[in-house]
Amino acid sequence: MTTPAAGAYTTLGPTRKDVSSRVRSVLPWVVVLVLGIVAIIAVGDRSTGPDRLLDPRSAGKQGTKALAEVLRQNAIDVQVVTVPEELPPSGSPGTTVVATGDAHLTPAMITEVQARSRGADRLIVLLAEPGVVPLIEPHLSGYAMPATHMLPSAPASGCQVDGIRPGDVVAGASVMMLAAGPVPDASFCLPVQGHPDGGTLLTRLPGTGERPETVLVGFGTGLTNAGITGEDTAAVALRLLGQSPQVTWLVPRPSSDAATGSGAYSPWPLWLTPVALVLAGGTVLLALVRGRRLGRIVPEPLPVIVRAAETTESRGHLYRRSRDTARTALILREATRTRLRRRLGIARSAPLADLIVAVAAATGEPQDRIQSLLVDSDPGSGPALTALGTDLVDLEGKVRRI
Q: What integer pLDDT is reported at residue 239 of this predicted model?
């Protein structure tokens, strides 16, 4: 047998080759996991939230988050609600109520919004559907404009609406309004450029007992994130919506969601759940792969085999060297009592007296002697301790022979 040279040593841990092999085995799974996450994020970025038309929470092309953020930067508090019942009961001065006039704004909602905004400074309806116009004013008609063209308005002149200045031009005509009958004290501004019927993109209706001053805005497409920079649209929008220190913006919840409560806007991106699922699946798959590499469980050979008798004898030598006969007797009695309880079916919580009675009945020995062996006697010397141990073994033997 050869011995290692002086200064030589053996490696107990994994070698560099082992580490490199483990890294190469795990690396393909890590690459697949990363590519999956990147692909899901790339797809999810296209729809990080519901891109709803004229929604101040949406950062998509059809949303109006840019307008809402600029209002906030100008110290205007913008609050978003989804049902008219979230509006204050009778409105409050210093508040402008804005409503997104899309297909989800029902006649009942319009009536509720007008009633709850009576005390507000004004009500502004951003028209996305022409059918909303006659619901607010029966003598007005709305007509949809082509969505493929950002039609501008003619320059404003002689307009009696706060926020509109002479020469203002807006882009993004979506709904044109025409008077179908007399509308007393109404103001019509921003005519559609080149339109022979003389329709306008903004109408101011005076306040009545049922509603506050109401402004119908027909250039909703120009207020979106994609069209807010066209012409003077951004400046006109800020002047119209920024006249009060607080703006309450109603984005009607779809009727199907109103019944189920599932139409609430979520701030979490849509790709978050798929990414979490991919991470969880990748973790489980990696654990399975690594677990299979471990193989079956095998017994590990012990360096030294020690017989149980040697262990017991060694403990006995330690007790004898300590000369603590009381402690040794207590250990012997406790072990005997445990085995007797198990043999006779007596619970550990049962009183010791029950065990003594059961042992005496099983062996025919007097209860006083059983009491002395299991509890009372105190060996004061080595021979007395040896005698106690012998008597306890004999007592267990008698019980086993039952």
A: 92
For residues 164 and 156, is the Cβ–Cβ distance under 8 A?
yes
Residue 98 to residue 89: CA distance in whole angstroms: 15
Nearest by Cα to 51 from 42, 62, 41, 36:
62
In 3D space, the residue among 237, 260, 261, 257 whose CA is nearest the CA of residue 249 turns out to be 237
Distance CA 330, CA 319 (A): 12
pTM above 0.70, yes or no: no
Residues 339, 398: Cα–Cα separation, whole Å: 13
Exposure b/e, 151-189, CB count within 10 A at least 16 = b: bbbebbeebebebbeeebbbbbbbbbbbbeeebeebbbb
Q: Which residues contact 344 (CB under 8 A, 6 or more apart)?
A: 355, 358, 359, 362, 399
For 65-260, CATH number out of 3.40.50, 3.30.920, 1.10.8, 1.10.260 equals 3.40.50
CA 205/CA 213 separation, integer angstroms: 6
- Integer Cα distance of 131 and 151 in angstroms: 20
Tens of pLDDT, residue by residue over 102-144, are 889 999 999 999 999 988 999 999 998 999 999 999 999 998 8
The pLDDT assigned to 23 comes to 66
Predicted confidence (pLDDT) at residue 148 exceeds the cutoff of 60: no
Question: How many Cβ atoms from other residues are within 10 Å of residue 255's Cβ?
Answer: 12
Distance CA 243, CA 123 (A): 12
352/347 Cα distance (integer angstroms): 10
Q: Are 78 and 249 in contact (CB under 8 A)?
A: yes
Q: Please, what is the angle between helix 325-344 and helix 382-400, to 10°?
A: 0
Tens digits of residue pLDDT in 44-79: 544 444 678 889 998 888 899 999 999 999 999 999
